[in-house]
Amino acid sequence: MTQFDRTELTLFAALPVLVLLSVLLPSWIVNYIQVSLGTGMVALGVMIQMRAGLVSFGQGLYFCIGGYAAGLAGKYFGITDLFALLGLGVVVALVTSVALGFLLRRYREIFYAMLSLAVSMILYGLLSSTEELGSTDGFNLPVPTYLFFAPEGETARLTLFAITATIVILSAVVLNRLLRSSLGLVNEAIRENELRVEYLGTSAHMAVHMTYVVAAVVSSMGGVLWALALGHVDPEMTNWTTSGSFVFIVILAGTGSIIAPLIGTFLLEILRVYAVELSPNTWQMILGSVMLLTIIFLPKGLWSLVQKTSPRKRFDPDTGDAVAKGV
Amino acid sequence: MLTAIAIAVDGLGFAAWLFLSSVGLTLIYGVMRILNIAHGGFYALGAYASAWGIGLYMQTGNPVGFAFLIIPVMALIAGVVAGLAIERGVLRFMYGRDEVLMVLVTYAMFLILEDVTKLIWGTDSYVAWQPAYALGTIDIAGIPYTGYKFLIIGVAMLCGGLLYWGLTHTRVGKLLLVVIEDREVSMALGINVTKFFTITFLIGATLGALGGALTAPEISVVPGIGAEIIVMAFAVIVIGGMGSIPGAIIGALIVGFARAASVHIYPPAELFSIYLVMAAVLAVKPYGLFALAEGRKI
Fold first, then answer.
1. Is residue B101 part of a domain?
2. Which of A24, A128, A292, B249 minimizes the number of CB atoms within 10 Å of its CB?
3. Membrane spanning segments where (chain A) (predicted)?
4. How far apart are CA A50 and CA B249, in angstroms?
């Protein structure tokens, strides 16, 4: 199993390029790349669920759990080690998602979307009304250290970027494996027809539960990295509008490849910067229109333009009526 | 005892407001199977239109009484214009698509509506306190309540009653119930389902706008109120069972009292008590209290 497919080779090739760019490009662009690597992880979490036909309108929950777990550990226990913070975020997300998964795995389609949204809004309400944690303003995070290495200034910035990029790329490779694993294939079968999956002797509930947990863990890692990149967390991370933007990214980029949401996140981040600058009051209108046009004209997202058209098109309920075309 | 009375009155007030803001959502879902996120946009449009209209009217120095007329008129204009634009302009091309896809489509419409609202009324806050102030206060067990709160309770009961009467005693309403029961069979029976979709969407949109328009005098109308109301409205209709109008009433009462209880007993819980109740109800009744049974595809 040491064979890498094209996606993985691309990802591995992208890592040195990213690190090199971080040295060459001006720091503000590097910042955007770093921030979008963090949110890109959350988009990946949304994407692997969408492969099973499940739209999570509350992925911000785990984004926020990761960010706050890291923030609280730094604030109250003085932990600044990036790997410890990352581990902590993952553990909290793991425990939460395993527990919530028992509730959520019973739901599909819009109920899954609504319930995941409701759960994320519980945390939003909780954090917004907790004054010790800065209510809606949130609080700041410490500068991270790496085991016994505590860089400062420019070195700190570049180290954090390199580590972030490495973690995101490695996670993407693991997720790519996951999509090709039996779990990934069962998920696609669930999207097609869940009852038949059960008839064939596999537990759809189990597969959905596992996917939910994996998505949660990935998103929490994204949350930790994002929070460290910005040095700040606030409850807005788990507001449903934030979760909505992750769904937007996946719709726009498509679920065709692990790489698509990562690139989509970065493009959106850059677009947002310019749009907000040029015309702050029409930014959401642009987003909405782009989303509508994507749904109508590119049901498989922008990635379908990159991807070679495969001869066997299948039924695809989450992207609508790409059904039967070319069957 | 005082707390109990306060919870009862406040709970009823919240419930009335929640019912008005969410009944349009459940109606649209019941008939069209569209979970309309843009409903939050209708609410915001209604709130802005009414606050702006009342503001303009009050500048003329005329008596405050007519300001009460501005509220439903503005709600009707906002609901019909935005509803028609969205239903005729976008949604009608997408009927019959997957439910999840329709959520995403209406989410896109919601984003667009948010900015349309900002483009029309800017990002400043609007206040239109005059109608709420004009009704004075009513004392119950020594606690003063704004009379306006009781007006909202009255309007909610009126709307609920009208909807009930309309659905059970008029031809259109009866046919609508048939469409809710089974869309395909009603189509086969010769009902023009698409026409009913348009009617339903306009009624739903207007109800959403009315929810916002009635709330405007009590709050300061700012960007973002649409995003707040839509998640609460979801909670209400999910608890009651999506698509069920009695469900919306029960859901609004449950959420209203839960919120009032947390406000009086433990204020920090106000925001998340709603979703906690929702999760609790769904853990017992996975598809809400009044959910319609549905067959699974094989």
1. yes
2. A24
3. 7-25, 60-77, 83-103, 156-175, 212-233, 245-271, 283-303
4. 33
